[in-house]
Specification:
Elements lengths: L1 E4 L3 H10 L8 E4 L6 H17 L6 E4 L21 H9 L23
Parallel strand pairs: 1-2, 2-3
């Protein structure tokens, strides 16, 4: 498993390919931190595109970390996606919110545009 990169993960992944990572993993972890589901999917796609350009487009991707911290009102250091524990529970009750790895948010189905 290739470690997941945070923030601009597709850039770090491209740098790893320049260093020779091609073919050296069977699964790539992605940590698509965003307050919006559409951006989570975009980040996964950007990573998928880097993998495809480097000959690893058929390898699986695992969304191994997401973030909607229950820090709302508890910290001054915010990113705009903080919520409360109740907010987390409500978000995770929505079928479209991937709150944990599953058959729907796992390695292959959470990789939009997966080629293979």
């Amino acid at each position: 498993m290739l470690t997941g990169f945070a923030n601009f993960s597709w850039r770090a992944l491209a740098q790893a390919y320049r260093a020779g990572i091609r073919g050296q993993f069977d699964l790539a972890a992605v940590h698509p931190f965003s307050g919006h589901l559409r951006n989570v999917l975009k980040i996964v796609q950007l990573n998928r595109d880097v993998m495809a350009r480097n000959g690893d487009g058929r390898r699986q991707i695992a969304i191994s970390e997401l973030t909607w911290p229950s820090a709302k009102g508890k910290t001054k250091n915010t990113f705009g996606w903080e919520t409360t524990e109740k907010g987390q529970a409500i978000a995770c009750a929505r079928p479209s919110t991937p709150c944990w790895p599953s058959a729907h948010a796992g390695a292959s189905s959470a990789s939009p545009g997966r080629r293979g």
